[in-house]
Design a protein that fits this description.
heterodimer; A: 270 residues; alpha/beta; 10 helices; globular; B: alpha/beta; eight-stranded parallel beta sheet
């Protein structure tokens, strides 16, 4: 059982990567209840939620859809304030003024804790800079999609190397790359020299050896558990951390300690 | 700890990824520690070897007296001696299943030579495993991009041989609904993942034709077994037990 294997981390895990893949501003009870019920079954205490980003990923996505998905997240946070940690979805191809307004609405006023960027623009694009500067000023992190794909790499889909370039421009920003399982060893090596880059553990199949490789190369302080539910299964994604050949202390950092630090949360001591 | 039949285990060296568990002894330790009582094992080198028998033979010798491992013969039906090799694997070397890698061995399942092998397997009473994919296509070496086997091709093959039993290995979640159309096709769940992996697999294939597979040593075993850790309201515990063990026993023909 995952909950037993988690030991003292059971009920204290923070999942840094969840979605509900629907469109519009209004959460349905059954969707929310299922996410929360399943997460708690597997010992997850809180989840970073980043809206229906998969549906509004293009550079030409309407700003209204971004407003809707962020409103959805704000409503989730109101409904389950102890469980959801909201991240605002932004599209850096949109006008800077719009993105700043969304940051103010969602983070400054709404209590969200960070921003999610997907594949609208590569991280090397300078249009990300105003967003990164504002997030650095606020001290909140960005979770950025990344992947190295042998097939189907999107034209604007960032690789971990692109995020290294972003980190070079914004060395004080807190940046978490999604999808260790997509960047794999090559992605880990891209991050080594950039201490403000962290790797989220989701992505693809739970290939044996990858989590301990990341911990060995980056340090446990820079590896952060994320499931990418509902694209993935909470149990499987937790299993890849529990199976990794790392110490209990390193495991706790990956499962919750690093997220607590990056998000400015109180430690989940039970 | 409840016992498990693992229908998808590989032994050997895979050139695209270093793995920690390369020997039978290492695999055995990991599998038995997690409750596996039978493991269907094939030779990973047989996938890329010029003649799969070069890898089958040493594996069969090594597992001949072993209670844990069930020998699975990798056969390339495009080779001149494939039928003779398959017969020898089953009759003389103790193979309990045949395994095909259509994408790696460059043939389609509509090839008449496949039908001949399937008939041989049916007559011998052994299942035919068909490897849909070895890994996420996106993660393959850029110089070795191998297509996945279309589930419709497996269903079509199964329809031509209603008396044969098939196991789809390495199928993805999106393949299961199609695979479920053929009553003589089972699927192992090593590469199946979604928001509720087991619930969705059983929903697509039915409760009797989903079996456990770990795809060891390429994936974390504890992540694979986590698919069986589900709340009773999501998947009936009796179904979970069937996936863990009895469905695979039925597919093999005996435990």
């Amino acid at each position: 059982m995952i909950s037993e294997a988690l030991g003292p981390d059971c009920g204290r895990v923070i999942d840094f990567h969840t979605h509900i893949l629907v469109k519009g501003p209004d959460p349905r009870d059954e969707d929310v209840d299922r996410l929360v019920r399943l997460a708690r079954y597997y010992g997850i205490r809180k989840a970073v939620f980043q809206g229906n980003a998969g549906i509004i990923q293009g550079a030409d996505a309407p700003t209204g859809d971004v407003v809707d998905t962020n409103t959805y997240t704000l409503r989730l946070m109101e409904r389950e304030p102890d469980f959801f940690i909201g991240f605002a979805f932004l599209n850096p191809a949109h006008p800077v003024g719009f993105s700043m307004d969304e940051i103010n609405r969602c983070i400054v006023s709404g209590g969200m804790k960070g921003v999610k960027l997907l594949i609208a623009l590569k991280a090397t694009d300078k249009r990300l800079d105003p967003i990164m500067e504002r997030l650095t000023e606020l001290g909140v992190p960005v979770l950025h999609h990344t992947w190295y794909k042998a097939v189907w790499q999107g034209e604007q889909e960032s690789t971990p190397a692109d995020l290294a370039e972003l980190a070079l421009r914004h060395p004080e920003a807190k940046i978490i790359l999604a999808h260790l399982g997509g960047g794999r060893e090559r992605g880990v090596l891209d991050l080594v020299d950039f201490p403000n880059l962290h790797y989220g553990t989701s992505g693809s199949q739970p290939e044996a050896g990858l989590v301990e490789y990341a911990v060995r190369k980056l340090g446990a302080e820079r590896v952060v558990f994320g499931s990418d539910w509902p694209c993935r299964d909470f149990g499987v994604q937790l299993g890849r951390i529990l199976a990794a050949d790392i110490t209990p202390e390193q495991r706790s950092l990956v499962l919750r300690g690093n997220a607590e630090r990056l998000l400015g949360l109180e430690r989940g001591d039970g | 700890m409840k016992s498990i039949i693992d229908t998808s285990v590989f032994c050997g060296v895979w050139p695209f990824r270093p793995t920690a568990l390369r020997t039978l002894e290492q695999l055995k330790g990991r599998l038995e520690a997690n409750g596996v009582r039978r493991a269907w094992v094939s030779a990973v080198e047989a996938i890329l070897a010029p003649d799969p028998m070069q890898a089958n033979e040493p594996l069969f010798s090594a597992v001949a007296e072993d209670e844990l491992f069930v020998a699975v013969a990798t056969i390339n039906p495009t080779l001149a001696t494939s039928r003779r090799d398959a017969e020898a694997c089953i009759k003389d070397r103790g193979a309990r299943a045949l395994k095909l890698f259509p994408s790696y061995h460059e043939y389609g399942l509509s090839d008449a030579r496949v039908d001949g092998l399937v008939e041989l397997a049916r007559e011998a009473g052994v299942p035919v495993c068909i490897q849909v994919a070895m890994m996420d296509q996106r993660s393959q070496h850029p110089l070795v991009i191998v297509e996945t086997v279309p589930p419709a091709d497996i269903v079509s093959l199964a329809g031509r041989h209603p008396g044969a039993r098939f196991l789809a290995c390495g199928a993805f979640t999106g393949d299961l609904k199609k695979l479920g159309e053929a009553p003589n096709v089972w699927a192992e769940i090593s590469l199946v993942e979604s928001e509720q992996a087991l619930r969705n697999a059983v929903g697509a294939m039915g409760p009797e034709r989903v079996v456990f597979g770990s795809h060891s040593p390429f994936q974390y075993f504890q992540a694979m077994i986590a698919k069986l850790d589900v709340a009773p309201e999501d998947v009936d515990p009796g179904v979970v037990d069937a996936v863990r063990e009895s469905n695979a026993a039925a597919l093999l023909g005996a435990s």
